[in-house]
Amino acid sequence: MAATIEAPRPNVAPVPQVVARKVDSSSTGWTSWITTTDHKRIGIMYLVLTFGFFILGGVEALLIRLQLAVPNNDLLTPQTYNQLFTMHGTTMIFLFVVPVMAGFGNYFVPLMIGARDMAFPKLNALSFWLLAAGGIVFYASIFFSPPECGWTCYSPLSDTSYSPSGGVDAWIYLIHLTGLSSLVGAVNFYATIANMRAPGMGWGRLPLFVWAMLTYAVLLILALPVIAAAVTLLLTDRHFGTHFYDASNGGSPLLWQHLFWFFGHPEVYIMVLPGFGIISEVLPVFARKPIFGYKAIAAATLVIAFLGLLVWAHHMFSTPSPSLVLIFFMMSSFLIAVPTGVKIFNWIATLWRGTIEYTTSLLFAVGFIGTFLVGGITGIFVAVFPVDWQLTDTYFVVAHFHYVLMGGAVFTIFAGLYYWFPKMSGRMLSEPLGKASFWLMLIGFHVTFLVQHSAGLEGMPRRIYEYSDVQDLAILNLISTIGAFILGVGILLTLVNVLISLKKGAIAGPDPWKANTLEWFTTSPPPVNNFDSVPRIRSVEPMKDIRRQVAMQTGGVPEPEPVYSH
Which of 94, 181, 377, 404 is the most exposed place for a label (fewest CB within 10 A)? Predict the structure, then answer.
């Protein structure tokens, strides 16, 4: 069943039916997709490819949970289990969450700022094909010997002494290729946002999603060279006789951890900040209110990015470090909760006394807020280094980062998918199917990961392929496995929804949500040239201004502004 959209009220000026003509006839064959430089097609290819990797990573996760469903299970061999959790973690981080945000950004950043395309269209295409090459190189290793060192590939485990096969080399090439893809894309995002905004769109009128993508780009530019250097040193250690990480020859395994986590913790915010931007676009549309505290949310985005560069060593509390260093990283980890809290309070204030429309996109956005809040609170626990000494490398940490990344980033991705699918396809997703998907995902997620906190507190270590039937570990792991399959069914429902709606979904029209930002000022899907003419931007909600202007010109009654108490 297609989504039900509120009909325009009598005598209220409708959304202007903007006619943006194609500047040329676009070919539709498969070769046209391979050779395209259109930012919209590249964005769609990003989304299709990354969701394909998401499915692969999800299947790997379900196999992991099957192995851990009962004590002393022999479904998988230890080697296969290590390969699976390495492939799962690497896939979800480097081949799904980070590049899927680039997919949304590629499609919508030029539309939201009134640009015809990205600043460097050919470079944009290159960034996609580098990502595809990285994924192909990595998954080609399953035909030989996949990596077994975990997604962090700590030294000396990743050295040839312990990992002599080519799996680690495939992992290194993945990091290089996907890192180069993200770096090229980040430069392109920065150049596009800085130089190609519509008339009147100053920095104080940028959509919050664009602010988030700008910050995402800057963090990538700062962090990626560090991980590139780290894996290059690892490659030379493995094959060229150097000893950067070999403690027996004057090297330091801790050097790998410092380099990896100097990239790795900003990477967390590289993954979640674009999701924050999606939430900041979805909530005001379906609350029928302006975003509460636009300037505070934009500023908090920048502050989170800055502080995210200062907290990497809280991943290393169990290493031999001076107490003064541990205290610094503990306090900086506490401090980063402040701008995050500002965002959460502003999102709640946006919903407060709003005229709420309970769409699937809004449900995912609200589900994200509650879930991410739990992840943030458990993050405060592990940021206290004496507590972390007890919890490190247990399932408490596994639960924490899945609450942050799966419950945080992935819920925002699905909110963005349901919000922007009509613009990308011209058709509506089914709301009943979408809501069923949401509830299955929300319930399945919490059933899967909430009990893992208890398993960690009972001492269950992470990265093990079997465990003994002690305390409550058997029942906790069985519950977690059942939840994982509920979560998988919820995700599958959305995939089915997309496939059905592409052919049979209700026609969306240019602006089905009566939204606020400029991407809705064109047809759905947009033509090659995006816009015939771009209006002058006069506020952070240009579509409201356009509707008001059309009402004045046609003698209609403009939509009433919401009345709410400050």
Answer: 377
- How far apart CA 48 and CA 50 sit, in angstroms, is 6
Find residue 557's DSSP bridge partners: 12
Angstrom distance (rounded) from CA 450 to CA 443: 10
Backbone angles phi, psi at 461, to 5 degrees: -75, 155
DSSP string, 503-545: HHSPB--S-TT--SSGGGSS-SS--TTS-SS-PPP-SS-HHHH
Contact 151, 175 (CB under 8 A): no
Q: Maximum distance among all alpha carbons in the chain?
A: 82
Report the distance separating Cα 154 and Cα 134, nearest Å.
20
Phi, psi of 165 (to 5 degrees): -75, 175
Neighbours of 536 (CB within 10 A): 11
Does 146 score more than 60 pLDDT?
yes
Who's near 439: CB < 8 A, 6+ residues apart?
A: 490
Q: Which amino acid is at 14?
A: P
C-alpha distances in Å from residue 72, one per residue of 83, 280, 462, 478: 19, 46, 15, 13
Query: CA-to-CA distance for 16 and 314, rounded, in angstroms?
Result: 52
Q: Tell me the CA distances in angstroms from 387 to 89, 312, 315, 330, one per residue in order.
A: 25, 17, 13, 11
Q: What angle is formed at CA 302 by the lines to CA 397 and CA 108, rounded to 5 degrees?
A: 95
Annotated active-site positions, please? 88, 117, 151, 181-182, 265, 267, 269, 280, 314-315, 340, 343, 462
The rounded distance, in Å, linking the Cα atoms of 270 and 449 is 23
Euclidean distance between CA atoms 536 and 200, whole angstroms: 6
DSSP codes, 376-414: HHHHHHHHSHHHHHHHTTBHHHHHHHHHHIIIIIIHHHH
Q: What is the 8-class DSSP label of residue 26?
A: P
pLDDT at residue 4 is higher than 50: no
Res 445: pLDDT? 97
Q: Would you call 290 helix, strand, or coil by DSSP?
A: coil
pLDDT for 31 equals: 85
Q: What is the mean pLDDT of residues 25-33?
A: 71
SS (H, E, C) 182-245: HHHHHHHHHHHHHHCCCCCCCHHHCCHHHHHHHHHHHHHHHHHHHHHHHHHHHHHHHHCCCCCC
As a whole number of angstroms, the distance between CA 541 and CA 308 comes to 30
Residue type, 522: T
pTM value is 0.92
* Tokens 């919820």, located at residue: 490
Instruction: Check whether 25 has a pLDDT greater than 50.
Output: no
- Residue pair 350/291 in contact by the 8 Å Cβ criterion: yes
Which run of H or E residues covers position 9?
none
* Residues whose CB is less than 8 angstroms from the CB of residue 195 and which lie 6 or more positions away in sequence, other chains included: 119
Residues 6+ apart with CB under 8 A from 350: 283, 284, 287, 289, 290, 291, 292
